[in-house]
Amino acid sequence: MTESQLQAVLDYADAHLDESVERLCDLIRIPSVSTDSAYAADCVRAAEWLSDAIKDLGFDASVRKTEGHPMVVGHNVAADGPHVLFYGHYDVQPVDPIELWESDPFEPVLRPAPDGDTHIVGRGASDDKGQLLTFVEACRAWKAVTGSLPIKVSMLFEGEEEAGSKSLGPFLEETAEELKADVVLVCDTDMWDRETPAITTMLRGLVGEEFEITCADRDLHSGMFGNAARNALQVTADIIASLRTEDGGVAVEGFYDGVSELDPEIKAQWERLPFDQEAFLSDVGLTIPAGEKGRSILEQVWARPSCEIHGMIGGYTQEGFKTVIPAKARAKVSFRLVAGQDPIAVRDAFRAHVRARVPQDCSVTFESHGASPAIALPLESPMLTATRDALGAEWGREAALAGTGGSIPIVGDFKRKLGMDTLLVGFARFDNRIHSPNEKYDLSSFKGGIRSFIRVLAALADQQKA
Amino acid sequence: MTESQLQAVLDYADAHLDESVERLCDLIRIPSVSTDSAYAADCVRAAEWLSDAIKDLGFDASVRKTEGHPMVVGHNVAADGPHVLFYGHYDVQPVDPIELWESDPFEPVLRPAPDGDTHIVGRGASDDKGQLLTFVEACRAWKAVTGSLPIKVSMLFEGEEEAGSKSLGPFLEETAEELKADVVLVCDTDMWDRETPAITTMLRGLVGEEFEITCADRDLHSGMFGNAARNALQVTADIIASLRTEDGGVAVEGFYDGVSELDPEIKAQWERLPFDQEAFLSDVGLTIPAGEKGRSILEQVWARPSCEIHGMIGGYTQEGFKTVIPAKARAKVSFRLVAGQDPIAVRDAFRAHVRARVPQDCSVTFESHGASPAIALPLESPMLTATRDALGAEWGREAALAGTGGSIPIVGDFKRKLGMDTLLVGFARFDNRIHSPNEKYDLSSFKGGIRSFIRVLAALADQQKA
């Protein structure tokens, strides 16, 4: 790879950035909400859009049916270099509360930002449509300038990442031979800060659970039954309250089994990172860390397991007042896991914890929304080094090796089912409001990300030759 | 009043029962849900329907505007006897969960019951359209047979009973002179059992509260912020859990101030009543009393104050899963009060209890849904005795003097604002599913209730002469 060739590709990407933004807006306009079956046809449309987009780049691509939303698989493996499998997801989170959006979530707008940047605003602008197109557009620039890609690239896009990825495990097993590559590249992560790129090497796992408490066989009137009849909302609130300890920990018995204290070297590295603990909270209107006392926020969100309540509903929740004793109440809860925790053991411990708190004349049912272990990636590998160097060259500073509190269960699946390690390189920012109203992706993320992946592809090609 | 005259009125009512049922069905068809402003016009329609109905019986009646839903007032005071003010409400509870109704809540159906009775099924069939028309139809029979009523009767129907009766206090003050009578007759209560009529002499008060917790200034992603950011649903669940004690009591400081132990004589009377504690709960699918240990169910629901959670919502509650840390959560709570408790002190104590549990960087707002004290009526009065005797004559057994766990705040208003005592006589049954799907009124309640009120009107006329 010559410097001038690389420079030509970078120049091409810069010159055609507007077209890249237009393609991203086209993809955002497809409301591919995976958790709501009303949007199933839109998920298919998004898959077809992506398949067509990479066919344009010379990929042998197709939409593959599953029990749920379809997969997109494409291969462009003419080059000599190593073989990278790129993974992203085209599905997005629901948009509610819709009333807090300042613009239609599925009609993206470009909004000038106070810092001179431009925000691309819409559901999925960052997570994950913007991030995955960042890589696709890098490939497009290579193809446009040199007629081919510098290394072998396969792509896999799924449509159920926000819905528990139920079809993914079986699909990976069926297509294990086809998808096998030297390394997986996943783009679902953040930059360290506006100037510092990052490669994520630690990911928390996730156990997602929903439960419903049933007490009486109908809703009751509190005038007739108040005091005497068990209240399903009270039982549910009691259970939720019992999950956390006074000092911010998790009270489920056995939950911390296998959890180690953070490696002192990593802890020291994190303490050196430019991270403003107060600003992290004050940016969202808070001041007091809610997790375990005596642990830094980075440790709380990257290296400590957590328990959060995501949704709860029961009784009369409309305008006005209704003195009903609700017969049923539902709650959605998740646990973020760290290395050493067994997700199935955590799920079992949670369910036992709940069952022990359901009165004898009431009942509980559970629904699983996934169970995946935490991942800690090997820090030393030539490909990681090459990627770090490429990112450093683009951004003018060394890439941080970070953790992330979020879960990317597929990383575990790639390791277990395909024996592949994953490089996690993303250009999202902390304030992108993913999963929230007014989600956005910075134009500088998109532009710098495309340029970064152009360099990463070159570096991986060169690393092979070295 | 001669026996034969009374018998003629009773016979007329029996012979025209089908027409009475048809009128009740007409009234149920008007969806006068007071807590939802979408039904405001229907509330007006229900008021006009009632005003027209009693004009037919010779009442000087009109619909009176208020800040909320209108009142209906009517007078028929040509007779010599004492003056009764009859109170009822034409508004009804919301119908959700609508999917549990076996028929349209506002298209009443007559359904044969296993015991040979017939159920009139629809929202408001019992509470309070059925109950108030029971009295109106008794007046109709008197008017049809004798051309007049045996005593002076005024009627007052409101449309906000299920919504906190906000307009009622001011209205009673404005119309105090006009509404003054010898006694109030209120029909919002139950029979003791299928064969035993009841007059209710103890009513619990009610403090209704709604609160909203706000933590972060937006919903957050638990992968990024889990552990570190306060979760509004967790805070709300912790507060709800903190309201009750382990042994079924209420944990708000000062809540039991002024509460006396039940009078031993009344306790003994209640123990003699044919009340099946196990059946009371097993009828609704439960087996274990949830209130204070060591107290009977009747004591729990009639003579002990309570705290119930009626509604709670926060976070993502639709299909699927969303790992959001909710910024806001809401809950509706009520306290049932007994004699000796000050509703304002209870409200203040509750709010202090909540505020003490809101983290410093979060906030809470409150909305009041009413605050009314408990009522204990004087057991000895000639009118009570006359009413008891009339009920006994109709049903062939002595009327029970009962308590009720429900609140009828107007009884306190009549006492405070008009200086009037209230006779609470109703023909609803425990299993009428008021406030719940498939609310019904037994045809035997309607028929026996009309006959009972015919006798009560005669007895009050005779009592005056005695």
UniProtKB/TrEMBL annotation, chains A, B:
The keyword Metal-binding applies. InterPro entries: Cyt/Met_Dipeptidase, Peptidase_M20, Peptidase_M20_dimer. The keyword Protease applies. Residues 211-361 form the Peptidase M20 dimerisation domain. Keywords: Hydrolase, Metal-binding, Protease. It holds the Pfam family Peptidase_M20. It comes from the Bacteria. SUPFAM superfamilies: Zn-dependent exopeptidases. GO terms for biological process: proteolysis. GO terms for molecular function: metal ion binding; peptidase activity. This is Peptidase M20 dimerisation domain-containing protein. It comes from Pelagibacterium lentulum.
